[in-house]
């Protein structure tokens, strides 16, 4: 996303704020630009956030603790980062009067069953509600919600590659599990598209293809095991069982959100529950085609060849394979 931001409307400066020192160093080594600034800090520290946002026009908020199982066992920490961290960011954005603030959310926030999903839903609601109490500030607040992203940190593709490179076993929680998926480049482009459309108060839900976890594992085993010197049949796939808080199928739009949803070509727009947001849904021309919740169980999954094509069209592919 940082690399795309450098080309997007040619900003004077892009500040990357993260508590991951190693990640910032790697990014600084990879991207050589005098318009980049790398700031160490944590979203739990509001004073540091205000310093980071000084003279900034747009904030893209992607900070989160996102591993479902770990968050189930560490809920206090998840709340501190995902919920209270978002609150700190919102207050800092209003204090510095930034023009636009976009929270990047997840399908797990829709009718959540996990600590991670519940805190991300709260993060969304905090962001949308900020439009009603921003006072004299001109900041527009909105959200973008999508599923798994090929090439992002912590995604399943690098995990499967590591397991294949070790000769297995590959671990699949449930053979019928399905997930929404999108290449990181496409996800980034659609985040920018949502930002350009945003008037304040919307949650943009990106339309995404779906894959079966077992199809992904089998496709990657067939394609990549020979690259690591293994016959695909030698790499076993073990079923580990669903983790605490996980769902078999994910939801991008819940049943309760359908009535507030507007459909565009590449996304849905969930209009705000709060009337005081001043949002006029008639600004969009079409309603939506949904008559039930939008889940990964209801979308035809990608074929194995389509899965491999998507992986190899991702910019992070070479890094993942070489790593």
TrEMBL record:
Domain Polysaccharide biosynthesis protein CapD-like stretches: 2-271
Native source organism of the sequence: Halorussus caseinilyticus
InterPro entries: NAD(P)-bd_dom_sf, Polysac_CapD-like, Polysaccharide_Synthase-Rel
Family note: Belongs to the polysaccharide synthase family.
Source domain of life: Archaea
Protein name according to UniProt: Polysaccharide biosynthesis protein
Pfam families in the cross-refs: Polysacc_synt_2
PANTHER family noted in UniProt: UDP-N-ACETYLGLUCOSAMINE 4,6-DEHYDRATASE (PTHR43318), UDP-N-ACETYLGLUCOSAMINE 4,6-DEHYDRATASE (INVERTING) (PTHR43318:SF2)
CDD domains noted in UniProt: UDP_invert_4-6DH_SDR_e
């Amino acid at each position: 996303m940082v690399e795309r931001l450098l080309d997007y409307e040619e900003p004077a400066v892009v500040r990357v704020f993260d508590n991951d020192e190693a990640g910032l160093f790697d990014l600084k080594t990879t991207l050589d630009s005098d318009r980049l600034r790398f700031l160490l800090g944590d979203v739990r520290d509001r004073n540091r956030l205000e310093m980071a946002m000084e003279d900034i026009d747009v904030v893209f908020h992607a900070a989160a603790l996102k591993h479902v199982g770990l968050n189930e066992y560490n809920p206090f920490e998840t709340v501190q980062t995902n919920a209270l961290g978002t609150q700190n960011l919102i207050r800092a954005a209003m204090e510095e009067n930034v023009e636009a603030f976009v929270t990047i959310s997840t399908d797990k926030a829709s009718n959540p069953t996990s600590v991670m999903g519940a805190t991300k839903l709260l993060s969304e609601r905090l962001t949308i509600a900020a439009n009603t109490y921003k006072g004299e500030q001109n900041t527009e607040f909105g959200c973008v919600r999508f599923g798994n992203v090929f090439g992002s940190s912590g995604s399943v593709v690098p995990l499967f590659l590591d397991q294949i490179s070790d000769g297995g076993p590959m671990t699949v929680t449930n053979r019928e599990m399905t997930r929404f998926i999108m290449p990181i480049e496409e996800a980034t482009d659609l985040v920018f598209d949502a930002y350009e459309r945003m008037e304040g108060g919307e949650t943009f839900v990106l339309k995404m293809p779906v894959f079966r976890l077992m199809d992904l594992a089998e496709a990657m085993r067939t394609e990549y095991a020979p690259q690591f010197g293994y016959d695909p049949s030698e790499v076993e796939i073990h079923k580990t069982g669903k983790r605490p808080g996980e769902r078999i199928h994910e939801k991008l739009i819940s049943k309760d959100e359908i009535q507030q949803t507007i459909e565009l070509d590449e996304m849905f727009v969930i209009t705000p529950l709060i009337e005081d947001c001043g949002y006029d849904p008639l600004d969009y021309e079409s309603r939506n085609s949904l008559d039930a919740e939008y889940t990964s169980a209801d979308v035809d999954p990608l074929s194995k060849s389509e899965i491999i094509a998507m992986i190899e069209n991702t910019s992070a592919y070479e890094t993942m394979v070489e790593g």
